[in-house]
Design goal:
The protein is an alpha+beta fold and 352 residues long. The strands form 3 sheets. Strands 6-5-4-3-2-1-12-11-10-9-8-7 form a 12-stranded antiparallel beta sheet. It contains 6 helices and 20 strands.
């Protein structure tokens, strides 16, 4: 039963989170009923805020503590990364025809990839207008969701809010209440099943970029060898991950290391082929024209490129093209459908 409840909590945790900045409305400060001022919409409670980290305290389960970040926003769609101690999860939310719907969801998502236009694999209604007490709908699992209050007072480490309350009745008898504050988003989630209770409470909101660790590989200057080093990168909403990875590969953290690509080389496009789970990476022509390396050094350069990209995207097969054509230098070449293989055997960590 305990294992089942833990799995259920993980599912509950990733159903609906959104990030936005810490703003208390004037109506909340005055204790006024905001429903009297204007017709409420989902946008009031789900603003897609860029470069904002929502940090939540967890009580009752290790997966209840988490952070969220909006990675990409375009029109009425937003992609959110949800990070807890168990996994990283991505979902795409769409606001359309008075409904906020989860249209894409994928777990174990530790890299950066824009999925706003990915094929729909989910159709879970998170919130539905009109935002009135008694409005009900069903989620993907067939559980009933209902707006049960427009001004429920809820206390969190970040403050006290008069919030929109949505209650979900699960088929196993469990109950979840989610609280959304105007101009802020989700401020609390409370799950109960008998005496078992789990809380996710908003702790703080930071205007900041998402930080993540990345293993980077570089050839060693003056030696035929490759080493790796763990570095931190930052990603802001709607930034280009190609540009960020370029910068990492062009700028090793020590003059004892050789950049894996030249200053003039660009990553034109990165695409993760989910059917074959092959990472497809297209470089500008400078990858070859600026290399100026013998076959031994070229091996280390390719090893550095392949391992850096493959480890970040958790892909073993890397298909490298240059201006759309399969990689071909004076020493090495691949044909369409062939690929380089991630191989970190024997590679040691770089010691400064």
């Amino acid at each position: 039963m305990k294992k089942f409840l833990s799995l259920l909590i993980i599912t509950v945790i990733i159903i609906s989170l959104i990030g936005c900045e810490k703003v208390i409305s004037k109506d909340q400060e005055k204790g006024e009923d905001i429903s009297k001022n204007k017709e409420l919409t989902i946008v009031d409670y789900y603003p897609f805020k860029e470069n904002t980290i929502m940090d939540y305290e967890g009580i009752g389960n290790e997966y209840a503590e988490q952070k969220t970040f909006i990675e990409f926003v375009e029109g009425n769609r937003a992609q959110m990364k949800i990070m807890n101690s168990g996994t990283n999860f991505v979902k795409v939310l769409e606001y359309k025809n008075g409904e906020l719907t989860e249209v894409f969801a994928e777990g174990e998502f530790y890299h950066i990839e824009n999925m706003l236009n990915a094929n729909t694999n989910s159709n879970n209604i998170v919130l539905k207008e009109p935002l009135e007490v008694g409005n009900t709908w069903s989620n993907n699992e067939g559980s009933t969701m209902e707006i049960t209050s427009l001004d429920r007072k809820i206390e969190t480490p970040s403050g006290t809010y008069d919030a929109l309350e949505v209650t979900t009745e699960f088929k196993d008898g469990g109950r979840q209440r989610e609280y959304y504050a105007k101009d802020i988003g989700l401020v609390a989630r409370i799950y109960n099943n008998g005496e078992f209770e789990v809380k996710t409470l908003l702790k703080k909101i930071d205007k900041d970029n998402q930080e993540m660790d990345i293993l980077t590989y570089y050839p060693v200057a003056g030696d035929i060898d490759t080493v790796y080093i763990e570095q931190d990168i930052e990603f802001g909403t709607n930034e280009s991950i190609e540009d960020i990875l370029e910068n990492v590969m062009k700028n090793p953290p020590s003059d004892k290391l050789i950049p894996s690509i030249s200053k003039n080389t660009n990553i034109n496009k990165i695409h993760l082929n989910r059917e074959s789970w092959t990472l497809e990476v297209d470089f500008s022509k400078e990858l070859l024209t600026d290399m100026n390396a013998g076959s031994s050094l070229e091996i280390e350069i390719l090893k550095s490129i392949v391992n850096t990209l493959g480890k970040f995207y958790d892909a073993e097969k890397i298909y490298i093209t240059v201006e759309g054509s399969p990689y071909e230098s004076g020493h090495f070449s691949i044909k369409p459908g062939e690929y380089f293989q991630v191989d970190d055997s024997g590679i040691k960590e770089f010691k400064k």
